[in-house]
Amino acid sequence: MNVGVAIFGLALLVLIHEAGHFFVARAVGMRPRRFYVGFPPAVAKVARNGIEYGVGAIPLGGYVKIPGMHRPAPSDVDSYFARALALAPELSAPVERLKRTLATADYDGAIPDLEALAAAVRASSEPGVQVAAEKGLRELDDALSADAYWRQQTWRKVAVIFAGPAANVLAALALLVVLFMIGVPTGADRFVEQVIPGSPAARAGLRPGDEIIGVDGRAVDAGEIPGLIRASRGKPVGLLVLRGPNPLRLAPTRARLDDGAYRLGFALAARYDSYNPAKSVWLAVSDTGRVTRAIAVALYDVVSGRDRKAVSTPVGVVQGSSQALEIGFRYYLQVLALISLSLALLNLLPLLPLDGGHIFFSLLEAIRGRAIGRGAYERASVIGIAFVLFLFAVGLSNDISRIRGG
């Protein structure tokens, strides 16, 4: 159950990110072509005012299709119509004409060439040609349209792309404001709030209401208890508790490995501090600034090789969220806010295909006063994808290590 809620939370943050792109694109006159809850293929869809709204079969976040993210190039024509040409060689003339026009960067002149190609496809009697060419005609029509992304003023492009990370920042702030208003965890008491049935703690005789005052003969504060249990690494752990006025020593029991950590299977009662709305907003903003700096330092440590243990993949994110939810809903909100902020900052790195890369190239084109070649975009994307894959590999290694208890 907790894992399912954790996955839903992560998917919701991705959906919020995509919704930011979608609504700002509409606001600045850049009509998106699709907005899906989940990823295609579609389970259900409906068209309204030229936008296809749907529910995707892959229930992970959302998907927004903004037209014409890049200027169309002759290579696009080759990839889109290779199969159609194999079925109907007579299409080669309009295809080559369209490629020549695009090669000269005469994008307005390419519109009638595309229309001529579409007419030739419709006139073809070869079976399967229209299906094979359908996607290419649609994609190029979007790329040459007046509301294509690449045709827009710089401020419009930056606004649409920045809206995704901004939505995640706002989501993080909202979560933190709610958390501070309902009560932020400030620590734990030594009193046991919950004992999981069938757990080592239950078998040892631990009960809700017991106050843990010692672990393995050592007097402890509440904050020391989880660390000492994890450090046992499966060796027998003895608890000393107060049950009523009298101390009671429980039989030593072995902690079990659960989600990468050794646990006895109980939860301590937490202490909470709550604040009024104005104070909650201020604390949320302060926390966001502090966490932003910490994430920036962590990214630098990853790149420099100083410390890569903090990197995680969705596997680790779900695991951490699930563990937080197991402790309490307030902790889960705290972790969810951190994840939302991390998504925003990672996406703002100036690397393609991340949002920050699109913003960087849009600003660079504005400074240069002319377009950057498609080849430069593709080379930058290779570097960006390599970096993302590097982070994924490091994160997956960390997640595997945590799951194994290493």
Characterize the structure shown.
By secondary structure, this protein is of the alpha+beta class. The chain has three domains: 74-144, no CATH class; 186-273, Pdz3 Domain; 277-404, no CATH class. It has helices at 2-27, 74-87, 92-103, 107-123, 129-144, 154-182, 200-204, 225-231, 277-304, 314-327, 329-347, 355-368, 374-404, and strands at residues 34-48, 51-65, 184-195, 211-215, 218-219, 236-237, 239-243, 246-249, 253-254, 256-258, 261-263, 266-273. A four-stranded antiparallel sheet has the order 5-4-7-8, with helices on one face. A two-stranded antiparallel ribbon has the order 1-2. Helix 6 runs antiparallel to helix 12.
In short:
This protein has 406 residues and is an alpha+beta fold. It has helices at residues 2-27, 74-87, 92-103, 107-123, 129-144, 154-182, 200-204, 225-231, 277-304, 314-327, 329-347, 355-368, 374-404, and strands at 34-48, 51-65, 184-195, 211-215, 218-219, 236-237, 239-243, 246-249, 253-254, 256-258, 261-263, 266-273. It contains 13 helices and twelve strands.
Q: In one word, what is the shape?
A: elongated
Q: Separation of termini?
A: 25 Å
Q: What is the radius of gyration computed over CA atoms, rounded to a whole number of angstroms?
A: 28 Å
- In which range does the helix fraction lie? 55-70%
H/E order of the elements? HEEHHHHHEHEEHEEEEEEEHHHHH
User: What proportion of the residues form beta strands (DSSP E)?
Assistant: 15-25%
Q: What count of helical segments does DSSP give?
A: 13
Question: Biggest sheet: strands, sense, closure?
Answer: 4 strands, antiparallel
Side by side, the strands of the main sheet go 5-4-7-8
* Helix/strand class: alpha+beta
Number of distinct beta strands: 12
Overall pLDDT, averaged? 84
Tell me the domain tally.
Answer: 3
Oligomeric status: single chain
